[in-house]
């Protein structure tokens, strides 16, 4: 037993002596040949290097300058670098695996195909690649610095690692996209990749951000795009395709997104100097999605110019909050077409639109059929529409409808506490509103200085006054409707001097082919709940004194026949003949739906005649009678 102990002690002493001798040799000029001999003896490779650096105080570390690893059989260079330094982790290598405490490689060209030549069990606790290059069909960089913690040589393309991953590169190319001044500070822990900081410059702007990537989910804590100039190009198409593929493969949540001084010009959309900040933006399967628990997405932005289709907005400013159930606009303002101005604030839900304020100033709006239908469809989406404060000034409105053209010049509206749609029914259900304009043309009848004031209080809508000035005359009227009652009792009264007679056919749609002017006094009332209520309740009287009346009759039709066809639909496309007619005072009285036209004298071509009539709205029966004198 004593002999065995002595033998073991001798072996230990000899081992230490040999190791000591080797370490001493490594610290001399014979160190490099010794390492080269060991590599060629123990591996199928030979080693070349300019020099070897070794410090006796760090016995498990050595460095090689300009090393080159060559395969003995083919004499092909496997690895080549400007500098390599390695430090062995002795205790981690006792199980037979190769574990390095650290490895530093400088000025090397990475070739992933040669990764298989490395020991399969290789573990590097801290790997630093300085001034290295890599190139493939889709990915390339040069003069890059990379630091990785706990790197293992696995079957994965780049191996695997746990811990810190840092990258800096003056230039990097991905699928034709060139990124410059790239900096990445990140860490991988148990399958979660924490990107503490990422920044780079590209042809589309400068990017900075931080993120967490886990199980095909990306949480962008912060993403900033600055100084961007975006125009159509092949690279933009490729980038859009890359983003589309990424957003479909990963669920992306953006806690904060900032766009700083971004300009774009694509297709029919132009944007100049946009600054935007958004919070809680989510993409699910490539589509915008709302955050969980009905969380709000905050959005604020300003831009010098936004040009979309026919709309030109300048000095745009907006602040809003978006959620699945509500869009709250804290403020929105913009100049339109260089002269107009719009500003509004309010809330929108799927069923209601509530604006705290709406200001329009100096606009020129042409509501052609397509735009009018779009606005009408959007309006009818809401069950209720409210406007707390309305101010429209110096605005021109054109509706180029061939059947009922409308043009208003210098429109001014001022409203307060308005309820314009209630339970999917349009109307003015509450509030106060005044309306005026410089001039208007309503279905080809010119009107100057129109004015109207209306209010609703306790369900009673009142129009007082309504003033319309025509080329030869003027109309003053007032009206009321009781919305608090299901019967909708209404009342109208007005007086006019030299009113255009054509307004009955052009405004009210009556088949009354008369031109000229007339003086008017009218007072009528009825119940407006439904058609039957109107038929049973219409009561009032109308007195008119016509002047310079001209009647349009069908070609080949006598004047008497035309009189009997008043209020009847005329043949479309038929030729008309104008007959000057002297008409006496017209008196029409209505009593609970029974309407009577008092005998009215007419003179045409020296012939005197009388026209009278009776109608019953309840039964729908009625007739006109004509007698010659």
UniProtKB/TrEMBL annotation:
GO terms for biological process: regulation of protein targeting to membrane. The keyword Transmembrane helix applies. Coiled coil: none annotated. It comes from the Bacteria. The keyword Transmembrane applies. GO terms for cellular component: plasma membrane. Residues 416-543 form the AsmA domain. Pfam families: AsmA. Keywords: Membrane, Transmembrane, Transmembrane helix. This is AsmA family protein.
């Amino acid at each position: 037993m004593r002999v065995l102990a002595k033998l073991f002690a001798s072996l230990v002493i000899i081992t230490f002596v040999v190791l000591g001798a080797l370490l001493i040799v490594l610290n001399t000029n014979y160190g490099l040949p010794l390492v080269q001999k060991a590599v060629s003896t123990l591996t199928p490779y030979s080693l070349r290097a300019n020099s070897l650096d070794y410090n006796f105080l760090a016995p498990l570390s050595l460095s090689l300058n300009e090393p080159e690893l060559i395969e003995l059989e083919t004499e092909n260079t496997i690895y080549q670098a400007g500098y390599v330094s390695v430090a062995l982790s002795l205790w981690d290598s006792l199980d037979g695996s190769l574990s390095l405490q650290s490895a530093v490689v400088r000025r090397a060209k990475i070739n992933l195909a040669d990764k298989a030549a490395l020991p399969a069990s290789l573990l590097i606790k801290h790997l630093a690649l300085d001034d290295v290059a890599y190139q493939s069909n889709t990915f390339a960089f040069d003069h890059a610095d990379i630091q990785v913690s706990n790197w293992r040589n696995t079957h994965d393309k780049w191996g695997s690692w746990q811990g810190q991953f840092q990258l800096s590169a003056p230039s990097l190319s991905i699928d034709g996209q060139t990124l410059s001044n790239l900096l990445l500070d990140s860490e991988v822990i148990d399958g979660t990749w924490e990107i503490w900081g990422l920044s780079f410059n590209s042809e589309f702007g400068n990017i900075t951000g931080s993120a967490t990537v886990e199980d095909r989910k990306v949480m962008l804590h912060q993403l900033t795009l600055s100084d961007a100039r975006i125009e159509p190009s092949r690279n933009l198409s490729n980038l859009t395709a890359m983003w589309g593929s990424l957003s479909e493969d990963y669920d992306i949540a953006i806690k904060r997104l900032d766009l700083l001084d971004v300009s774009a010009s694509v297709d029919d959309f132009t944007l100049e100097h946009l600054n935007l900040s958004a919070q809680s933006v989510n993409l699910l399967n490539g589509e915008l999605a709302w955050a969980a628990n009905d969380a709000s997405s905050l959005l604020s932005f300003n831009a010098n110019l936004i040009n979309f289709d026919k709309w030109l907005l300048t000095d745009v400013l907006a602040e809003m909050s978006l959620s699945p159930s509500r869009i709250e606009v804290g403020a929105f303002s913009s100049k339109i077409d260089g002269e107009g101005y719009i500003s509004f604030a309010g809330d929108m839900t799927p069923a209601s639109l509530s604006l705290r304020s709406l200001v329009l100033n100096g606009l020129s709006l042409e509501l052609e059929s397509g735009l009018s239908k779009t606005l009408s469809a959007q309006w009818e989406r809401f069950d209720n529409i409210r406007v707390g404060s309305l101010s429209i000034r110096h605005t021109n409105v054109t509706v180029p409808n061939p059947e009922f053209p409308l043009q208003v010049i210098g429109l001014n509206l001022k409203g307060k506490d308005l309820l314009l749609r209630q339970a999917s029914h349009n109307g003015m259900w509450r509030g106060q509103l005044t309306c005026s304009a410089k001039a208007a043309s309503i279905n080809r009848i010119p009107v100057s200085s129109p004015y109207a004031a209306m209010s609703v209080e306790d369900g009673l809508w009142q129009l007082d006054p309504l003033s319309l000035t025509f080329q030869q005359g003027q109309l003053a009227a007032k009206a009321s409707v009781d919305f608090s009652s299901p019967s909708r009792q209404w009342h109208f009264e007005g007086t006019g001097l030299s009113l255009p007679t054509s307004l009955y056919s052009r405004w009210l749609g009556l088949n009354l082919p008369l031109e000229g002017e007339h003086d008017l006094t009218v007072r009528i009332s009825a119940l407006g709940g439904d058609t039957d209520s109107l038929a049973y309740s219409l009561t009032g009287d109308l007195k008119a004194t016509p002047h310079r009346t001209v009647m349009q009759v069908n070609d080949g039709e006598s004047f008497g026949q035309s009189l009997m066809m008043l209020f009847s639909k005329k043949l479309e496309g038929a030729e008309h003949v104008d007959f000057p007619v002297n008409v006496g005072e017209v008196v029409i009285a209505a009593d609970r739906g029974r309407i009577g036209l008092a005998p009215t004298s007419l003179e045409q071509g020296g012939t005197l005649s009388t026209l009278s009539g009776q109608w019953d709205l309840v039964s729908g029966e009625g007739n006109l009678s004509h007698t010659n004198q």
